[in-house]
Write a structure and sequence with these properties.
five-stranded antiparallel beta sheet; about 30% helix; Dna Ligase, domain 1; about 300 residues; D-amino Acid Aminotransferase, Chain A, domain 1; Rossmann fold; single chain; alpha+beta
Amino acid sequence: MNKDLHVVVLMGGWSSEREVSLTSGKGVAAALRERGWSNVTELDMNRDVATRLAELKPDVVFNALHGTPGEDGTVQGMMDLMGLKYTHSGLETSVIAIDKELTKMVLVPHGIRMPEGKIVSSESLHQEDPLPRPYVVKPVNEGSSVGVAIVTEDGNTGNPIGKDVEGPWNHFSELLAEPFIKGRELTVAVMGGDPMAVTELQTKAGFYDYDAKYTDGLTTHICPAEIPYEITCAMMDMAAQAHQLLGCKGASRSDFRWDDERGEDGIYLLEVNTQPGMTPLSLVPEQAKLKGIPYGELVERLIDEALK
């Protein structure tokens, strides 16, 4: 691989995941420099991003953005128009995968089990519950479990949910409501079409939300997960199939809930992340390491796939 190529690491932006993106991007840039890449530019995305990229003339862009507009197809479409090569998934895949309902429309007909849900207006939650409690409400098109809330019988939301109670209903006009699936939180990273491992996530908060993902000490990663072999195989197969059906490139990460009282019938795919984190706490680097792929090599593999 030609390490004289100009790599622009695109990070930051203005989404709710800005700080995580900056951490991912800085880690990527540092790893490239450590491995002898001589021309690496870190670009904190602003509204003039197209102008800056045109000035920098990169050979390849490492897309380290998280959330909108870096993960939803907006930035991908811009880079396509500019004729730039970039890591991770393209326009169509990004548009579909960021939207949890569109993802279901692609995956469920192929036998991938996902929770049944429905789109509801946030205002309607203050009149009545859309589903029997417990249920989950989440934004339709945010990543990293941003804005996810579990509504339970004994929670402090009130019944119906009080208008003065803090939650995603205060920040989004529409939400996706799904039944809460009891059981265990697991995730599978896929790299270049191949599933790497299953990690179980045990959180002190009881749910793998945004804070649990990115705050050191709040979540224990068990990698590989201590689960039956057939469950490991089923999850890895499901993640690889989702990666392929959605047309993902580079790395993706599929998040699951598993009701361990129901065996394989208790496996539910929750979402597919097309821009998984590359921070020190992130799951893709951890699974890659388990497979004997150090962080720097993982970054290079993503760049190599983008250049092809």
